[in-house]
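Hello forum,

I keep getting stuck at the same step: I have a sequence, I want structure tokens, and every attempt I make locally crashes halfway through. Rather than fight my setup again tonight, could one of you with a working pipeline run this one for me? It's a single chain of 150 residues.
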Amino acid sequence: MYLLIHIRSFSHFSFQNRNQPASLSMDPARFFEAWVVRQMNIGMPTRLVALFLLVAVISTAVAMRAKRENCKSEKLRELVLETVGIYPHQYSYQAKYLKQQAEERFGFWWSAVIVSERGGYGMSAVYDQYKNTSCEMMLFDTYYWIGRTC
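Reply #2:
Ran it on my machine without issues. Output:
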């Protein structure tokens, strides 16, 4: 049914090649069949390559997001989001506020490191990089790390 309707829509076109005599021209059904075969032969490899690239880009993005966001503590995540809301684009104030709030809420020996992709950073009291409980996340092209360093 669809094929007949689709062929009828081509009936008003002239399927005659200018270089060929009228006796060698194609009828609408053959023209449509040739068009479908050409699309299948040319279009399938291109579609497969596009599909492969799409899957590769999505899997890479998921892997990068999973790698950059390593924050199991919801309270620390909320603290980072609160800090970004209070001091947007002020990394030294964000680091100081993160350290102060973490020490008030969870005890002593907390450190914060904030590095933006533009090169700006803020750091507050990083003592020991090996013995830590930390939360790291990427937010608005800025890397946030807060952790217990003693």
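Residues 74-148 form a domain with the Protein Inhibitor Of Neuronal Nitric Oxide Synthase fold (CATH 3.30.740.10). If your local run keeps crashing, start a new thread with the error log.
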